[in-house]
Write a structure and sequence with these properties.
Blueprint: E1 4-9, H1 16-27, E2 30-32, H2 34-44, H3 55-74, E3 81-85, H4 94-107, E4 110-117, H5 120-126, H6 131-134, H7 141-151, E5 161-164, H8 170-180
Parallel strand pairs: 1-3, 1-4, 2-3, 4-5
Helix pairs in contact: 1-8, 2-3, 5-7
Length: 185
């Protein structure tokens, strides 16, 4: 079976990592969630999920992400990958999608973009869940509302699987993704 590169995109609190963990169990794909790249840099800067993130952090995170993509490119051909991210409504975010689409093509893998949505008030409620602190995730409900209001979400590409996670269990979302991608064994 050909490998797959899943790209699960959604705002903070939409369930990217949790869905990715379920999808990994269903498909055997390696989960490379955005906090694998973010957390070493966030930790070095003493960030806590509440204080604002300085702009220079993102340049360093980008370097880590490039190395993670390089490792995924060099992975054995049968290995599938799940990447997660939040992309704001800015044309400058499209290269993130294209880099992973290109990675999939270079590996001979199927590219499966997944766009998550969730009601803003449900996202704000999720900001207070204790497990968010474990991975230095955003934990400020009002800060989230401001980010979403000011930055929005990048619209999905035409080939994206679109899933509203407001009332959908993460395991069910992962099943939808795997069945749509034909990845269930």
């Amino acid at each position: 079976m050909a490998p797959t590169v899943y790209y699960v995109v959604g705002p903070p609190g939409s369930g990217k990592r949790t869905i990715g963990k379920h999808l990994s169990r269903l498909t055997g794909a390696a989960l490379l969630d955005n906090h694998i790249s973010n957390d070493p840099i966030f930790t070095a800067f003493g960030l806590d999920g509440v204080r604002p993130i300085p702009a220079e952090v993102w340049d360093l995170v980008g370097k880590v992400r490039a190395l993670v993509r390089e490792a995924a490119l060099a992975a054995p051909p049968q290995v599938s990958h799940i990447f997660t991210n939040w992309l704001i409504a800015d044309e400058g975010e499209w290269p993130s999608v294209e880099r992973l689409r290109d990675l999939a093509a270079r590996r001979g893998a199927t590219f499966v973009p997944v766009w998550l949505t969730c009601d803003t008030e449900e996202l704000a409620r999720r900001m207070t869940l204790p497990e968010r602190a474990e991975r230095l995730k955003l934990r400020d409900p009002e800060g989230l509302r401001t980010l979403l209001r000011e930055m929005g979400n990048l619209p999905p590409p035409r080939d994206a699987i679109r899933i509203d996670t407001t009332n959908l269990a993460s395991a069910d979302a992962a099943l939808l993704i795997a069945s749509h991608a034909g990845a269930l064994f």
